[in-house]
Amino acid sequence: MKKKELELGMGRKITRRDLIHDTGLASLGLAMPIGAAAALEGTYTLAAEDIQHAKMNREVESWLEKAFHNPPEAARPSGYWWWLNTNVDKQAITRDLENFRAKGMGSVLLVCTGNWEGTNEAQGPEFLSDEWMELFKFALKEAHRLNIKVDVNIAPGWNMGGPWITKEKSNRWFLQSQITIKGPQKFSGELPLPERIDGYDSEPQLGVEKSVKMPFEEIDYRDNAVVAFPTPNHADGEVGPNKRDDLPAKSNRLDARIFLSVDTVMLQTLGEWTSSEDDAPIDPKDVIDLTEKFETDGTLNWEVPEGDWTIVRTGHRTTGAMLSVPLQGQEGLENDFLDRGGVEQMFENTAKLLIEAAGTLAGNTLRAFCSDSFEAGYPNWTDNMLKHFKKYRGYDPTPYLPVFKGWVVGSADISDRFLHDYRKTVADCMADEHYGRFDELCREHGLMTRCESAGPSWSGTMCMDGLKNLGRVDFPQGEFWRGYWFRHQFEEDGEYLACKQTASAAHIYGKPTASAEAFTFAGNHWSGYPDNLKPSADQAFCDGINYFVFHTVTCQRPVEGKPGLEYGAGTHFNPNVTWWDMGAGSWVSYINRCQAMLQSGLFVADVLYYNGDWAPNLVGPRNETHNAGKGYDYDVCNAEVLLERVSVEDGKIVLPDGMSYRLLVLPGANRMPVEVAKKIETLVKAGATVVGPKPVSDPGLKDYPNCDKVVSTIGDSLWGDLDGKDVVERKVGKGRVVFGKSPSEILMADGIVPDIEIAGQEETYIDYIHRATTDTDLYFLANRNDRPEAVTITFRQTGRQPELWDAVNGTKHDLPEYVIKDGRTSVELQFEPHASMFIVFAKP
After folding, report:
1. Contact 473, 486 (CB under 8 A)
2. What are residue 802's phi and psi, to 5 degrees?
3. What is the 3-state secondary structure (H, E, C) of 679-698?
4. pLDDT surpassing 90 at residue 117
5. Which three-class secondary structure state does DSSP give residue 40?
6. pLDDT of amino acid 207
7. Which of 334, 352, 374 is nearest to 152 (CA)?
8. Which residues pair with 549 in a beta bridge?
9. How far apart are CA 268 and CA 249, in angstroms?
10. What does each C-alpha distance from 199 to 172, 248, 255, 404, 412 come to in angstroms?
11. Pair 310, 199: CB distance under 8 Å
């Protein structure tokens, strides 16, 4: 056959002889020279922290080229190494690990569960038994021999839980009951118990659909507080609480569907309560704490004053949420996500045993302990909730507990503020008491943490701060499905598309990698292969993900034959897939090179969005909740990072790890915590440009009403007469405040042109991400269309010659034909369908 040149969409021509004979890979230009897979076994290594800090090294280009040609260990992907029903043996372990290493993988995430689809695979040894421990130790020794890191999910199921989790250390819901009595009298009687599903009326979701029907004697009810108050009358003379329609969401008792958009999840709790004649407000000073007069048998002894009094009893129950997809015999409750006692009980019964078994390999080959995506219903309470509330919010919540029943305490606004503070406390507990404590326990034993700590949450209203949860662990991890680049496939964009949130968390908390559980949903078993995986991979890269954990690389005993036994979800990737010896090495090599490049330097963005102080607080898919403008990129931060890590240098918003932004954009709300308002004032006076509406009040109840006065005063001093129409910009100190102009309008007016501009035919969609080292800028470009594209791309770069770095083949090419004009560089490029490339500016 005559040599035929093929266009690979990489700005050059190569011959058919250069291609690996794999139709799926060749159709995407995912070829690499034969023998290149062997080159992955080279000796060059570079730790993730070295990559992160190499921006300070003037020899960046040399190590970046080395990392591109021979990706370091930190860049090599991982995979969910499913020990399905622990149906594994030593032969399977060795075969898998040797194959994974040969194809270029650098680590595995060991997970032991049953099967999601409930199939009956053969059962292996019991989790943590002597026989299981022998297999675990053998796996670590083999991994050590092959230089593969092992991360371990410490539960015999998805989340943290198991048979050792006692009911009092499980997820909890608050419950309340109330009675009305007349005084004066000496009351000595048993208070009624709450209803077992008091206020939990929405359709239950994963893990709690059966437990809501548990009889009362099985829900482990426990009391927290008893309060009484003079029974108020409404304007019409009726007596009783005024339950607003949004009370279930505001009190974290609405189990909304996972597929709700992030905006919808947050907006369900943010509608401000206004006073009405039906409120019949209770003065918080009139609320009497009777907890000390309440006996453990449920009896209250109280000298009742004159008048009608309502008594509210507040306690909590187990949600009954069970460990998802447990191993047979390992069924049990999920641990308490809002108090450290739960994770400590979990760690004591599993992690310490694994550490002991690992011996000297703990802390090196055994690299990290893991927790899978939070999908445990919607816990909203813990036995120490009142204590945690006082710690985080600075006041006693006890007088406001009747608000959960629908009573208005103080006023509608005050009650709303209390609920805001309650939801914030739930989020703080989840971040610190669970994920933060988990990280502390691992560090005490020389181990790291890998957690999908921001979901996807199965409940749409779990009051988490997604960024804060992710910031508590060493390897923040999100999740994406195969096919997720076609967003119209979903009814709504839910948290399954959790890549931008994870990437922002990594950037703002100074984490070297933004990981993702990759290709989770496969549609049909064994239907995934590089040709249809690459579009999802490239979008995840453009979203900021730079470390894939393939879902799944199920361990297979050779005796099972082919295709073998597989987990019920995921894109299968192991020696049993038909294309393993034809394209798996090329596919992983592509991932390796992309990850090596995208772990280098720092992400480049012009805009930092502050996501507000409320809970739930989540970050939506890229460019949907936030949109900095075409050609400008952004990150999202929370209040914690804004308060503790943000400063100003030379007019830019900067973080201690080197990230910088030109604008800080506020959410479109007029409420802002005092601490945040003071920090905004400091930033503006130091030279920052802050964009958004004027704050007029604090959302919380601490130091109310003085907190509102402080926020209002700061708002007036910074915003002055800005109205967003006639007056849109105001200088204050060295900085300025802008309201009524979009981020892109501000940047253009400042002479900051888009970082990248793409000109092509109608509906051209070339996606991108930009990272920079000390003296090198690199852009990853991906054609998101299923058609060829001829485009002119203009970069905000000058003074250096652009190069094309081909991650498919590991080759570099000069681009001699380019145009420099007005401080920018324009290059003409051609892309085949779903093709990708790096454009690198390094040489002077």
Report:
1. no
2. -75, 140
3. HHHHHHHHCCEEECCCCCEC
4. no
5. coil
6. 62
7. 352
8. 78, 517
9. 6
10. 14, 7, 11, 9, 19
11. no
What average pLDDT does range 651-655 have in this prediction? 98
In 10 A of CB 579, how many CB atoms? 18
Say how many Å lie between the first and final Cα of the chain, rounded: 43
302, 303, 305, 306: CA torsion to nearest 10 = 110
- The pTM of the whole model exceeds 0.85: yes
Nearest-5° angle of CA 274, CA 279, CA 285? Answer: 100
Tokens, residue 743: 């981020």
As given in the structure block, the two tokens for residue 457 are 């949450």
How many other CB atoms are found less than 10 A from the CB of residue 812?
Answer: 15
Alpha carbon of residue 144 to chain centroid: 30
Write out pLDDT tens, residues 562-581. 998 899 888 999 999 999 99
Q: Assess contact for 36 and 102: CB atoms under 8 A.
A: no
pLDDT of residue 206: 60
Mean pLDDT calculated for residue range 744-762: 96
CA 183 and chain centroid, separation: 53
Query: What amino acid occupies position 184?
Result: P
Q: How far apart are CA 112 and CA 119, in angstroms?
A: 15
How far is residue 777's CA from residue 838's CA, in Å, rounded to a whole number? 10
Grade residue 823 by pLDDT with cuts at 50, 70 and 90.
very high
**pLDDT at position 236, please?**
67
* HEC secondary structure over 550-570: ECCCCCCCHHHCCCCCCCCCC
Name the more confident of 40 and 758.
Answer: 758
Question: What's the CA dihedral at 256, 261, 265, 267 to 10 degrees?
Answer: -140
Chain centroid, CA 119 distance in Å = 30
Is the bond preceding 563 in cis, omega lying within 30 degrees of 0? yes
